[in-house]
Design brief:
CATH superfamily: NAD(P)-binding Rossmann-like Domain
CATH class: Alpha Beta
Order of helices and strands: EHEEHEHEHEEHEHEHH
CATH topology: Rossmann fold
Helix content: 25-40%
Strand order of the largest sheet: 3-2-1-4-5-6-9
Number of helices: 8
Largest sheet: 7 strands, parallel
Radius of gyration: 18 Å
């Protein structure tokens, strides 16, 4: 088993994934802009690197790395300039380093690639992109980048369209979009160990009774979620938000910077 590089290791989800990977026996190389705040697992190493600096990223990626789990970058909606640097340039650098190492990429994509699809519609990965902001747009770019790097360079990549990854659902929307922490670990490990996945897109969502998303590459990579947000149905809060937020799958991301003269009708 080769070494695995995890970018964004010091972030919330990075700190969830690290112990799951260590327990599964993976040799870990961790990287982020800030130090990893938890005790390093046995055999793990940390190297600070800025994703926008390809040379620094390459220096943080040992030659024996066989997979890069890319959880780094900006994880919410913000200015287009910030997104361009961290998520577009940074992800492009990750794929270039992966190509130079012959490594697989596991990419933390997002449900915000399809955020302007209306609620009540079950989506598959064949439905068109409808990003709800610059953040979602950057994730759609990365999925297309992965497609191109596979077609042109043979770089394998698995793109995880993460829903609401939390310890437990907090509101009624999460009953559809929740990804439990244990299922996140199962998802990443499946993406790492799948034989010859080529290019794959998987919804990062638990086995929720109310889930909105289906028709992906989960079975092909061997991901079978076990948790269901429905067991929290009696204790979550009612979702609150503006009309636009409540009409579309991307929720509050749809309302950030929204400037239409009236609410867009779902279509």
């Amino acid at each position: 088993m080769g070494r695995v590089l995890l970018t964004g290791a010091s972030g919330t989800l990075g700190r969830v994934v690290v112990p799951a990977l260590a327990k599964a026996g993976f040799r870990l190389q961790l990287s982020d802009l800030i130090e990893f705040p938890d005790p390093l697992p046995d055999g793990a190493e940390f190297a600070a690197a800025d994703l926008t600096d390809q040379k620094a990223l390459a220096a943080a990626c040992p030659d024996d790395v066989t997979a890069i789990i890319h959880f780094g970058g900006i994880n919410t909606e913000t200015s287009s300039e910030s997104i361009l640097n961290a998520n577009i340039l940074g992800t492009s650098n990750v794929f270039e380093v992966a190509r130079s190492r012959g490594a697989r990429v596991i990419f933390a994509s997002s449900n915000h690639t399809i955020g302007f699809h209306p609620r009540g519609r079950t989506l598959t990965i064949d439905d068109p992109y409808r990003p709800d902001g610059f953040y979602g747009l950057s994730k759609a770019y990365a999925e297309l980048l992965g497609r191109m790097f596979h077609d042109k360079h043979g770089v394998e990549s698995v793109h995880l369209r993460i829903g609401s990854c939390l310890p437990r659902p907090l509101d009624t929307r999460h009953l559809a979009t929740w990804l439990s922490y244990p299922d996140l670990g199962r998802l990443v490990i499946a993406a790492l160990t799948a034989p010859s996945p080529g290019y794959a897109v998987v919804w990062g969502v638990s086995r929720n009774t109310r889930r909105w998303w289906t028709g992906d590459d989960s079975e092909r990579i061997g991901f079978f979620p076990e948790d269901d947000g429905e067991r929290f149905a009696g204790c979550v809060a009612a979702e609150e938000g503006q009309a636009v937020s409540l009409a579309f799958q991307g929720a509050s991301h749809c309302t950030i910077g929204y400037s239409r003269s009236g609410p867009m009708l779902p279509s």
